[in-house]
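hey so i finally got around to running the thing on that chain from the lab meeting. sorry it took forever, my laptop kept dying and i had to restart like 3 times. anyway pasting the input first so we r on the same page abt which one it is
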Amino acid sequence: MPLKGKKVLSLQSFSKQKTIEYKQMNFPLFIARKINGNEDQGRKVSKPAIRIATLGIAIGLAVMIVSVCVVLGFKHTIRNKVIGFGSHITVANFNSLQRSENYPIVVNDSLKRMLLATPNVQHVQRYTYTQGILKTDDDFLGIVLKGIGSDFDSTFIHQNMVAGSIPVFSDTQSGQKILISKTIAEKLNLNVGNKIYAYFVNEQGVRTRRFTISGIYETNLKQFDSQICFTDLYTTNKLNGWQSDQCSGAEVQVNYFELLDAIALNILNKVKGKTDRYGNSYSVATVVEQNPQIFSWLDLMDLNVWIILALMVSVAGVTMISGLLIIILERTQMIGILKAMGTKNAQIRHIFLWFATFIIGKGLLWGNIIGLGLVFLQKYTGLVTLDPKTYYVSTVPIELNVLLIIALNIATLLICVFVLIAPSYLISHIHPAKTMHYE
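ok and heres what got predicted. didnt touch it at all, straight out
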């Protein structure tokens, strides 16, 4: 008797354990895994539907990844080129920012220290503009000469040099060196080392300078390449008839472009109402405000990306809906048997939603492989080239944003599963009695 009692207790405990395990088990997920793991060679209709759905997800995600990386790369490449010519924020004479004329402002060490003390400000440099004419024996061309000093950050120009080198520009003496663009060099048939005369007309009369071409740069931004030349700050100040502590303004580089407006407002609050020792007022302008057409054009690209994303997600969703309906219709008999065994409609719907999730996951995997493969191929080989005169870049630019790609994967998964909820209710119209003889 004691032994039999122990056996009964052990059987009861075993039964309770199995009941607990069954309750803890996700039944729809368990069945979905079984269906997904079964090759099921007899399903001649659903297998192509699953492959088409997987392919639709993969192609859609690959196109989205490539589109986002290309548009981000293009936008940031063009944006950085514009910033390279004029920095993020400009502190200049109030009249200069309101009109097209060039007025001086005092930018001394105390002002530079105040600007550098502003949060998220990375660098401050002085500059001076003056307009002139470059003349050769056969031709002439109007230019804008930008004077820069020893505090100038030449990283951008170094990245776009095609010949020669950048001289050491000074704000205390003239080196008679000039840096021109490839566009200007081709128009005037100039090379590195050539001598060229420049003429400047202002209130002081006509002034002439003889420069030596030290280097040639190319950014493919026609608006800037066709007119901007670089020389030392000392020369441009003398040509304008300004004092040594005067210049056109100060260029401010910031750490985060996203905080541009907030940083500009902070600087404006510091200089607003202040005047220099000559009575000139300070003001502030961002690179976006100074180049509204370029940045408006770049903002339009965001609309193109959203359209592409919407189309690709729609295609992926439609292919998944078609695939799910085919799978449900082909497994009508299985649905009838599950209902006859007491399985609820909600549980059966969850089975097919889990199954669809597995298909979507496989499509996302292949989509990432294809999309990232194309992105890395272009990034490190520059396989696809462009006409720089039209697109401002010689190759398709790529920028890889990991967080954005992860967000694309999650959004695609959630949207595709969401659009499948309504079609899954077809299961509730399937009756067990009518499906027993279904083949």
